[in-house]
Amino acid sequence: MRPGPSVLYRAGSRAELDGLMGALPLYEWMQVTATPLAPHPNDPVASPVTPGNRLPDPRLTLVYRLEATLGQPQDLGDVAQGRRRIVPLTGGRSPGPS
Length: 98
Prior knowledge:
Strand 2 and strand 3 form a beta hairpin. With 98 residues, the protein is mainly beta. It contains one helix and four strands; from the N terminus they run H-E-E-E-E. The model has no long low-confidence stretch (mean pLDDT 80). It has two domains: 37 residues, no CATH class; 38 residues, no CATH class. The strands form two sheets. It has a two-stranded antiparallel sheet with strand order 1-4.
């Protein structure tokens, strides 16, 4: 038998996790293994788990800047994965994060 998907749940106690899992529609047919995870260094500051807890809003950080010059698109037509189109990169530069 192949393993099923891995899913992450946040719960304040084993009883709360059991309640969450038991509420799943197909729970009685599932084989569940719970592995407690340690906090990750990038996790938000630990706070008590409550129904209103939510993750912080995502933030974007500029990593680099790329200026590209593109050539004429080449349409290769339909292939097994769908329509194939190639746009060649003919020049450009990467001046840094500014």
